[in-house]
Amino acid sequence: MKFDTPAGANPTDRMAVLGKAHTHVEGPLKTTGRAKYAAEFQDAGPDLAYGYILGAAVAKGRINSIDTSAARAAPGVITIVTYKTVKPLKTGGFFVQRMLAGPQVDNYHQAVAVVVAETFEQARAASALIRVDYAREKGSYDLAASKDTAPPSPTEEFGGPPVIRVGNFERAFAAAPVKVDETYTTPDQAHAMMEPHATIARWDGDKLTCWSPIQQLDMGKRDLGMIIGVPKDNIRLITPFIGGGFGGKGTTQSDLALAAVAARQAGRPVKLALQRPLMFNNTTHRPKTIQRIRLAAGRDGKLTAVSHDSWSGNQPGGRTEPTALGTRFLYGGENRLFQRYLARLDLAEGNALRAPGEAPGMMALEIAMDELAEKLGMDPVRLRVLNDIQHDPEKPERRFSSRPFVQCLEEGARRFGWQDRPTAPASRRDGRWLIGMGMAAAIRGAPIAKAGARVRLDRAGIVTVETDMTDLGTGSYTIIAQTAAEMMGVPIERVNAKLGDSTFPMTPGSGGQLGAASSTAGVYAACMKLRETIAQRLGFNSGDVDFSDGQVRSGERSVPLTDAARQGDVVAEDSMEYGDLAKRFEQQTFGAHFAEVAVDRFTGVTRVRRMLAVCAGGRILNPLTARSQVIGGMTMGIGAALMEEMAVDTRFGFFVNHDLAGYEVPVHADVPHLDAYFVDEIDATMSPVKAKGVGELGLSGVAPAIANAIYNATGVRVREYPMTLDKHLDQLPTIA
Amino acid sequence: MKAFTFERATSVQDAAAKAGSVQGARFIAGGTNLLDLMKIEVETPTHLIDVNGLGFDKIEKTREGGVRIGALVSNTALAADMRIRRDYGVLSRALLAGASGQLRNKATTAGNLLQRTRCPYFYDTNQACNKRKPGSGCAAIGGYSRQLAVIGSSDKCIATHPSDMAVAMRVLDATVETVDGAGQTRTIPIADFHRLPGDTPHIDTNLKAGEFITAVTLPRPLGGEHVYEKVRDRASYAFALVSVAAVIQRDGTGRVAVGGVAHKPWRIEAADAAMPQGPQAIASRLLAGARPTHENAFKVPLVERTLAAVISEARAA
Amino acid sequence: MSNPSELELSRRGVLTVGAVTAIGVSAPVLAASENATTGASTPTIPVSFEVNGKAEHLSLDPRTTLLDALREHLHLTGTKKGCDHGQCGACTVLVGGVRINSCLTLAAMHEGDTITTIEGLGSPEKLHPMQAAFVKHDGYQCGYCTPGQICSAVAVLDEIKRGVPSHVSANLTDRPRATGAEMRERMSGNICRCGAYSNIAEAMAEVAGARA
Q1: At residue C20, does pLDDT exceed 80?
Q2: Confidence band (pLDDT; 50, 70, 90) for C6?
Q3: In this complex, which of A108, A643, A656 lies closest to B234 when CB atoms are compared?
Q4: How many Å lie between the alpha carbon of A168 and the closest alpha carbon of chain B?
Q5: C55 shares its domain with C83
Q6: Chain C interface, best mutation among B2, B76, B102, B106, by max C CB count within 10 A
Q7: Are residues C144 and C174 in the same domain?
Q8: Which residues of C touch B76 (CB under 8 A)?
Q9: What percent of chain B has pLDDT above 70?
Q10: Which of A189, A679, B92, B135 is 20 to 30 Å from A339 by CA-CA measure?
Q11: Which is it for strands B225-231 and B242-248: parallel, antiparallel or unpaired?
């Protein structure tokens, strides 16, 4: 099915099942420990062996020699994979990092060897017996030191061209009466999902089956095939559940590639999980950024010039963090300049982490907006409302498909009690706490991509949906079941959604907040086809056939749906493809975040007291699971604002705090009750389902709302994340 | 984790004798720190003696009017004991500020004292660390040192002791009771239990090989206000950047110990004497001669400001 | 099932003794001789305990943690390995009704113990009240930390009931109450990266309220 004109009325509009709060359909499995994650498929083979990775001890250098003799002689060891035992591994089509070092080492903890043994304990112990002699080489690990020599980044798929100019920024900026010109930094951040990267790989002849938590199974297959030199079609990936990914499990990582290689070499199925302390340097992360924001406005608060320059670093071929993605579409201002630079760094690869681009971009832009509001003596909400736009500022003929941004801002302000905000910084106290309120806007692109599904109606009246879509906890199972239930006119209990198997019809999977919109549109297409087949089978000739309450109706005639499957299952498969609506319309999601914080006037520690988000994400398919996505983003935003940073040792080139004790993410005690609301929105340019995504929107804009609240509490402006106490302690009022 | 043999101890004498004589033997009780470090081969015992069956799990009144805490009393049980809560509140508070509920259920009194540093370079066996591998150097010096020591450190080691409990015990003048393989018992004042790194940072405490901690004894209750203030980036389940344990009397006198700043719980007599003079006077005596790194210099003013918070809280109580 | 690649491997292993570098230019596996001859195994020790009401007798490598014994030997994979270092709480189980991190304890240290895992609390057909409350309040997303959260939550309410104080208890000698702040502090050893904390607090409040 092709979608190339905005959707009209269709069966999803009934909203009998869609749009209703429904608990996760897999909830009873997850809460009782019965949900099986990839590396828990013990029945992959009775002879399942265990792999354990030895990570490189240097960040950059060459392996002079590897001595595996002691390890090979250790109890239970079956085989040891090193670059000397396998054909050179290539890189995949998305991540550029090499999965196995040798002889060159590209980054710290890059895999140097995989020990395969009968048990986990044996593999782990033997890995420590491998002796590797390295020739350390000088590397580049410090973004700040590389900033001034970093070249403009290449034109990139996600970031676009390195320089974008509209009007004459320099002249407008120079002429403006009110301006902000500040530099902000965001640190390297870790996905730190709870389930480690963990795979079971099994070969059957030249066919490879891997149980592996990969968000985008088709891409995972492609990349695994490229890396180990196996045709994509010989690979099957299975992952009914994923224990969190946030982009870190977007496609093939070292656990998958090396489990496959190790299983081949061992001649046995191999289970390989990355040990937590290896994950931070071995896999991808969100890279550190330095961002210079220049904003100029008239005294009326109207932006006249907007510039967002950004620096990040990466391994050769790696991408630039596209921090200006959101800035390009959030506010007006006729004169615009966006420049992106990419330094060569020899740290682990920087890549996508939930809302890549927008999340760190908003962390800078939205503080700058707060600074501008203060200079203008204007309320920060009002400044944003004033600079709302309805057209793409780079192509004025292009409208936003839907943009309830002002509604988000105003509804958020009202619900949060923004009018009660202390207008003067450092003016409110509650005992030992300095109290402040802050807000920030959120924007995140609303991509959608071709997705398929297969739908089957059986004799018992059960509708089974199969797609290779994944569920990281986002609610894919639930919204897919809801979509099929709505389309086929059955209760959700009659739908069996089967996901996470690459043999099922292809979707883009989970990533870039396109999963919900894309996969449900694919289900729509398949269900439309199934409806057609069923209608024909039941002898309905008219095009106006209604599927509801388990009945198929047209005119006066009504037949039970199950009658259609009396002679056998009815199956339909289709996919949704897209025309040029995404070119004709700028499709984005919007939101507004509000935060109240308390800063300890003694120690400078910040705690969040309450937070609220109002979001616009198209049709909300399930308000319960969508809200959970947003509050999940808000929680991650608390981490980004207050604590998360992978500390770089710029001498030896690695992230030092590489475990969950050193890399602090928010715990229960950091997170108060969180409020999240959605504005009513239907975006008919997206798909017949009229939905967008919300999972990444929920993070975009959270950290700067907290940062602005901290400023409001203390009067000390910090421009460097995370906003730990040491960043402002020396400027806090002295203690009497 | 290197292979080891495992036995369940049946008598403290045998256990101590074995620990003293078998090369690479170690006691294991809660195991929360030892196993953590064994998995990454920072610790590599060849023989583990499980002492959990030996008792030592009572909290009893002493003849002197204090309490004796069995070495194997869990952190939870100690924090929840009504006598401790009533008479030694700073100790309950310190315990409850540490780790997580699960860890406190398993971690023991003796094990908590014997915790090893959380210096990230100690934890990373690829890095030079004099504490882990004597003579290999200290990668933390000149590296990521935000969490590390500002005082009492050496050019061999800038690690801190991670315990909260030990800071409170230091302010309470606890004593550590031990027995060795020969049946010899001794009592070590908490002030002398942990060492400064000096040239031998691999030696954390003054325990002898095979010496087994049987109890920690607290002297008679001090009265006064008991406060434990722990400063950390996240609200819970994190090690201290700085912590202050204090017992403050109505007249403003009292005693104070600081955690997160040194290789051992940090207490200076002159600082105690300066208690009535306020945070600046206390802090300047506590941290006289501090040698912070660029990354942890903030701890010096932070100690003073945390002291101010503690004094203010004690006054308000 | 006979595995062709395995056969091929062993044949190659025979054929290529002493000629390691000659193979593999076309084949990904360069050296079958890398494969060690297994056989030397690690000595094991017997350990017996009860898991979810069932007596279990295992013979284990002494290095086996309780977590790995549950997951790899008893195939009770509901208990999760998130960090294996006591830094996340995903492996939380109840031993004698008390919550601990099963990753930081050896199986051999639990001789005679009574262990309850998430599988023992309830089943999809018969949810424990805490499990039902998590479902109702959407107290999870990816589900990986969830078994640990639920085991912890059950134990936390019990700890409050038993009067164990916490870091946020205003007065150490008062009996603690199941307030939001108390539950949040006590649950802090269970990390949820998906950020379901706010919903978990509500699930727990419901169960605590029902009890009170």
Answers
A1: no
A2: very low
A3: A643
A4: 42
A5: yes
A6: B102
A7: yes
A8: 159, 164
A9: 100
A10: A189
A11: antiparallel
Cβ separation C189–B99 shorter than 8 A: yes
Determine whether the interchain pair B234/A735 forms a contact, defined as Cβ–Cβ distance below 8 Å.
no
Separation between Cα atoms, residue A166 and residue A334, nearest integer Å: 7
Residue C147 located in a structural domain: yes
**pLDDT digits over C38-94, tens only?**
445 789 999 999 999 999 999 999 999 999 999 999 999 999 999 999 999 999 999
Q: How close is the nearest chain A Cα to the Cα of C57, in Å?
A: 18
Q: pLDDT per residue over C161-191, tens digit each? A: 999 999 999 999 999 999 999 999 999 999 9
Three-state SS across B190-228? HHHHECCCCCCCCCCECCCCCCEEEEEEECCCCCCEEEE
The predicted model gives A46-51 an average pLDDT of: 96
pLDDT for res C24: 28
- For residues C67 and C110, the answer to whether their CB atoms sit within 8 Å is no
Name chain B contacts of A662, Cβ cutoff 8 Å: 118, 120, 123
Interior/surface letters A300-326, b for 16+ CB within 10 angstroms, e for the rest = ebebbbbbbbbbbbbbeebbbbbbbbb
Give per-residue pLDDT as tens, A423-451. 999 999 999 999 999 999 999 999 999 99
Chain centre to alpha carbon of residue A403: 22
Asked, for residue C83, whether it belongs to a domain, the answer is yes
B87 CA: distance to closest CA in chain A (Å): 26
- Which residue of A133, A726, A729, A731 is the best one to mutate when testing the B interface, meaning the one whose CB has the most B CBs within 10 A? A726
On average, the pLDDT of chain A sits at: 97
Residues in C whose CB is inside 8 Å of some CB of B read 42-43, 45, 61-63, 65, 84-86, 89, 92, 98-101, 104-106, 108-109, 111, 152, 155-156, 159, 162-167, 169, 172-173, 185-191
Nearest-CA distance B260 → chain C (Å): 18
Cβ distance C172 to B106 less than 8 Å, yes or no, reads: no
Shared domain check, C105 and C88:
yes
Q: Taking CA atoms, what residue in A is nearest to C83?
A: A276
User: Which residues in chain C have their CB less than 8 angstroms from residue A669's CB?
Assistant: 168, 184-185, 187-188
The per-residue pLDDT for C36 is 57
| Dihedral (Cα; A397, A398, A402, A408), 10-degree rounding | -80
Both tokens assigned to B296: 């942890």
pLDDT on residue C2: 37
Shared domain for C127 and C202, answered yes or no, is yes
- Asked if B102 and B235 touch (Cβ cutoff 8 Å), the reply is no
C-alpha–C-alpha distance, residues A495 and A482, integer Å: 8
Asked if residue C153 belongs to a domain, the reply is yes
Confidence bin at C34 (pLDDT 50/70/90): low
pLDDT of residue B284: 98
pLDDT at C211 over 50: no
Catalytic residues of A, which ones?
696
Of A658, A661, A668, the CB nearest to B118: A661
DSSP, collapsed to helix, strand or coil, labels residue C149 as helix
Which class for B184: exposed (0-12), middle (13-18), buried (19 or more C-beta within 10 A)? exposed
CATH of the domain at C168: 1.10.150.120
Q: Which domain holds residue C63?
A: 45-120
Chain C residue nearest residue A46, CA to CA: C1
